[in-house]
Amino acid sequence: NAGVTQTPKFQVLKTGQSMTLQCAQDMNHNSMYWYRQDPGMGLKLIYYSVGAGITDKGEVPNGYNVSRSTTEDFPLRLELAAPSQTSVYFCASSGGQGAREQYFGPGTRLTVT
Amino acid sequence: RKEVEQDPGPFNVPEGATVAFNCTYSNSASQSFFWYRQDCRKEPKLLMSVYSSGNEDGRFTAQLNRASQYISLLIRDSKLSDSATYLCVVNGGTGGFKTIFGAGTRLFVKA
Description:
Oligomer: heterodimer
Largest sheet of chain B: 6 strands, mixed
Distance between the termini of chain B: 37 Å
Shape of chain A: globular
Distance between the termini of chain A: 36 Å
Radius of gyration of chain A: 13 Å
Largest sheet of chain A: 7 strands, mixed
Number of strands of chain B: 11
Order of helices and strands of chain A: EEEEEEEEEEE
Largest interface: A-B, 24 and 22 residues
Number of helices of chain A: 0
Order of helices and strands of chain B: EEEEEEEEEEE
Helix content of chain B: under 10%
Structural class of chain B: mainly beta
Helix content of chain A: under 10%
């Protein structure tokens, strides 16, 4: 099993551009998450989803959008990218309901110039 | 006050040393607790869950003190390969999906 996969691994955007970070999991997990990690900082939750068709905001949702049309996929959309969105983005998933351990993808390193 | 606070690092220890990390959390309604390990430029990976009764996995021991709202991680007989950042994770409170990651404690184990 591939676990949680993310594409692309690296991306450079110019201010104002838009893009979608892809995330997929093959573990049939109900819950999926998007985090960002700035240098020397902890992970901050952007959005999460507890199942297909259900999404909710995390701690830092501004400037991002998500959708969850299938159990497997949870793309993160950046509209009008800003330098403040330069970060490493991690997608994660967890099985079942409630507070379970999360499995992370390898991350996408995004630079906005 | 941060919701999850960890010992400031970095910790520099020789091989074979015992090292302990502490983590405090502010939400008394928190339900589950974990330690993750993150290697440089890699994704976090679960090291161990933390149970109320305390739990041990080889050289690693985790403990939870709900009354004082802190969790700890003890690493015995440190190895070079233990060098990493250790993240304290607290889950629960407002709904079951509020997950807060600590900023992490960096550990360097030297030969």
